[in-house]
Specification:
By secondary structure, the protein is mostly beta strands. The chain contains three helices and 35 strands. The protein has three domains: 233 residues, Jelly Rolls, CATH 2.60.120.200; 85 residues, Immunoglobulin-like; 127 residues, no CATH class.
Length: 508
């Protein structure tokens, strides 16, 4: 909004009487200068009505599990409300919106969690919803299509969050700074008028519900400029970050990472507070590490193949501000366990429908060194591998139809196998014994960057990763008969891929 319009709006604001919580707040005056459709300060301590501080008189209603009188984000804001996953605020706003602005202090999110922050109208139709989507990244939903960003919402700290959109893009701001602009393939809201919902699952747009504190929520009919958004944050008089913290140190298990403070203005005299987070290899799906609140962090085996980032929080007399570093890594080491931050299962990003091999380019035959009586050939389609000689599988009570066999085991996956779009899988080990394991290694495709992570599973069990792209399979892990090998590759860009192959093992 230009200065002339801002001055006119401020003059108009003087005509009506504001609620007591808004009368003296410079922040509230600045919000009202941009003519919000509704402005919920959420400073009530009793009752079920969330008063609208704008002249539009669009009050909201507290619904479900809501706690009033929670600590707010900065001194002029007064108190806030705390929403449980079953709580929210409902408002009728029969006009189209183009900007959402609010302060949020979200509870810690676990892997796979999603949460709706706000919705206006029907996000499956001409409305919209904004919240935390897959991999704990902020996302915008309209026309039933989700547009995901690479922006992580910090948790357990106050953040001013603004989403505003033009005819083709959604702009996401954290603490007055542009964090990301994203395209909206489903189209941007044509109307987005009607029911407003704060909290919950974003009118059904997200699979989980929000829990945490919310304050100073405003909806605007127009797209706010970057200058307006930055100026609004400055009015709160909290610390302002102009450059985020950085991380340095050896990227290996046992190494010590060090946080270098960011650049701040109005930061106050208090020492910075830190919170380290572990992310996946691509720098997504980040979550807090319990107890990791020093300026340094020693990498553990659980960090192997992950990236790390650090949150820095500065506090002055008015309030606090948090800035987040870029992800650092990935960390070298064995990926024998899932490097996630939570004990749950990782849903992944690949539906598992990729057959994983390139049909028709590799015949898949390996004559082996034992001529045998059986030619032992197989066209290799779909990643199937056969035994290299005339030895029949040894029957027994093993998990795969055979018993563990002492001595030498013949495994046919010794040659090259193409893994579509990423490279070739090599297997070495003519005779697998207790002292000579089967060696697996991915060789990246020529002209492409090496993937961030390569993981192996044999019959559903993880195999210890060696040097990031290889694995060793001991003879004790093999039984005579058929085995299923799954290779999951996480590239530097794009989705992970799962490749499935079958091994046949015989006793030599």
């Amino acid at each position: 909004m230009n200065h002339v319009r801002r001055a006119a709006a401020l003059a108009a604001a003087c005509i009506f009487i504001l609620p007591a919580s808004a009368e003296a707040a410079g922040y509230a005056d600045d919000v009202l200068a941009d003519n919000p459709l509704t402005y919920l300060r959420l400073g009530e301590t009793t009752g079920t009505v969330a008063q609208d501080a704008s002249p539009n008189d669009r009050d909201g209603t507290y619904a479900g599990d809501v706690t009033l009188g929670a600590a707010g984000p900065f001194s002029d804001a007064g108190t806030a409300v705390r929403l449980a996953k079953t709580g929210g605020v409902d408002v009728a706003v029969p006009a189209a919106s183009r900007t959402l602005e609010l302060w949020v202090n979200a509870d810690r999110l676990r892997r796979g969690d999603q949460a709706g922050l706000a919705a206006h109208g029907d996000p499956a139709g001409d409305g919209w919803a904004f919240g935390v989507g897959p991999k704990r990244k902020l996302a915008f939903v309209s026309g039933g299509v989700r547009s995901s960003s690479k922006v992580t919402l910090p948790t357990s700290v106050w953040v001013q969050l603004t989403a505003t959109w033009s005819a083709s893009k959604v702009f996401i701001y954290l603490n007055g700074n542009l964090a990301k602009s994203i395209n909206a393939p489903g189209g941007l809201p044509g109307s987005s008028s009607g029911a407003v919902k704060l909290g919950g699952n974003g009118a059904g747009a997200f699979t989980g519900a929000f829990a945490g504190r919310v304050d100073e929520v405003a909806f605007y009919p127009e797209q706010l400029s970057a200058a307006d958004i930055k100026a609004r944050f400055a009015v709160a008089n909290v610390p302002v970050n102009t450059a985020p913290p950085t991380v340095s140190g050896p990227k290996q298990v046992g190494g010590t990472l060090t946080a270098t403070p960011g650049t701040w203005t109005n930061a106050g005299l208090a020492a910075p507070a830190y919170q380290w987070q572990r992310c996946d290899a691509a720098g997504d799906d980040c979550g807090d590490l319990d107890g990791a609140t020093a300026s340094t962090y020693v990498l553990t085996a659980d960090d192997a193949c992950s990236t790390l980032q650090v949150q820095e929080t500065r506090t002055n007399a008015s309030g606090s501000t948090t800035a987040v570093s870029e992800p650092y890594g990935p960390v070298d080491g064995s990926c024998s366990t899932d490097p996630g931050t939570d004990p749950g299962t990782d849903p992944g990003t690949d539906p598992g429908t990729d057959p994983g091999t390139d049909p028709g380019t590799d015949p898949g035959t390996d004559p082996g060194t034992d001529p045998g009586t059986d030619p032992g050939t197989n066209p290799g389609g779909g990643g199937t591998v056969t035994a290299p000689g005339g030895k029949s599988p040894v029957p027994g009570p093993g998990a795969n139809g055979g018993a563990p066999v002492a001595g030498c085991l013949k495994v046919t996956l010794r040659g090259k196998r193409k893994l579509r779009k990423v490279g070739k899988l090599r297997a070495r080990g003519r005779c697998v014994t207790s002292s000579a394991p089967l060696a697996l290694k991915l060789k990246p495709r020529k002209g492409t960057k090496a993937p961030r992570v390569v993981r192996f599973k044999l019959d559903g069990k993880k195999i210890k990763t060696v040097k990031r792209r290889g694995a060793r399979v001991a003879s004790a892990q093999l039984t005579a008969g058929k085995h299923r090998l799954v290779v999951r590759v996480v590239p530097r860009n794009g989705k992970s891929r799962a490749y499935r192959l079958r091994l046949r093992v015989v006793a030599a």
